[in-house]
Amino acid sequence: MRIIAISFIISFHIYGVFSLRDNQVPVYYSKNSNSSADLYEIRKGKFLPFYTVVRFKNNECTATNGLVGTCYLRSECRTKQGVAFGSCSRGLGVCCVVTRNCGGLPTSSNNTYFRSPGYPDYYNGSSTTCTISIAKNRDSATHVRLTFTDFTLAQPHPTTGQCQIDRMNVLGSEISPPVICGENTGQHMYLRFTPDNSAMQIIILANSSTTFRRRWSILVTQHEQNESRRDL
Ligand SMILES: *[C@@H]1O[C@H](CO)[C@@H](O)[C@H](O)[C@H]1NC(C)=O
Ligand SMILES: *[C@@H]1O[C@H](CO)[C@@H](O)[C@H](O)[C@H]1NC(C)=O
Ligand SMILES: *[C@@H]1O[C@H](CO)[C@@H](O)[C@H](O)[C@H]1NC(C)=O
Ligand SMILES: *[C@@H]1O[C@H](CO)[C@@H](O)[C@H](O)[C@H]1NC(C)=O
Ligand SMILES: *[C@@H]1O[C@H](CO)[C@@H](O)[C@H](O)[C@H]1NC(C)=O
């Protein structure tokens, strides 16, 4: 028994050092376990018959704080600057919630929350813009959906209808959407990646020279042209 345990650890390390890529986990399988739908067997153990390397789909999960997350390895979640709230994929992954305020590296995480600084407190604004950058999370992603779960900026000008104080605009999408401001809670917007697949920027100006009870929480999800085609 002891010898088997030691060999297991040694072969685990051989595999771990040379073969494990992102999102692959060595798993001990007892003979009568059945594999679950979101686990993919990559390779059977070479040195010993009873463990195997699997990867799991980066499926959506419900975080223990009620937000929408994505199932990642704990280390991947850290790389994506997310926070783990509970586990998923039979405890192999963590339900990783990625939340961004202003700035930072482009996010490629499906289900990223773009929030005003200090959210859910109201945001007094700034003299500079608050921007996040969204990069494709896989080659097949064609567009992004912005779901405005909470979105209140200063109202447009009452006569011109123009967003003169606060405004949100998008750079780098195939077709530029209109500039928006005011109340948009419950609305959504689709944006297409450009053919060169470059990242797009969502830019919010919350003008601190006007005091206003403004704040936003935008859920950013990435989608494929043909959502029914689900590959890894
Ligand atoms: C195997 O699959 C069945 C049906 O999906 C499930 O009820 C059972 O709990 C599974 N067994 C194990 C060991 O995961
Ligand atoms: C925002 O502005 C209000 C009203 O001027 C002020 O009371 C509050 O302290 C400000 N908040 C921050 C975080 O600066
Ligand atoms: C913010 O508002 C002030 C006063 O309404 C205006 O002068 C200034 O140009 C605005 N800032 C930006 C970046 O639009
Ligand atoms: C992103 O998440 C949404 C919602 O779960 C899902 O429909 C979509 O297929 C995912 N897209 C990618 C590219 O992972
Ligand atoms: C989209 O998915 C459907 C159903 O799986 C398939 O029949 C169709 O060929 C797909 N279209 C493209 C453009 O991939």
TrEMBL record:
Per UniProt, residues of the CUB domain are 102-223
Gene3D superfamilies associated with the record: Spermadhesin, CUB domain
Instruction: Identify the InterPro entries for this entry.
Output: CUB_dom, Sperma_CUB_dom_sf
What Pfam families would the database entry show?
CUB (PF00431)
Q: Which residues form the signal peptide?
A: 1-19
State the UniProt keywords alphabetically.
Disulfide bond, Signal
Superkingdom is: Eukaryota
Is Disulfide bond included in the keywords of this UniProt record? Answer: yes
Its recorded name reads CUB domain-containing protein
- The scientific name of the source species is Cloeon dipterum
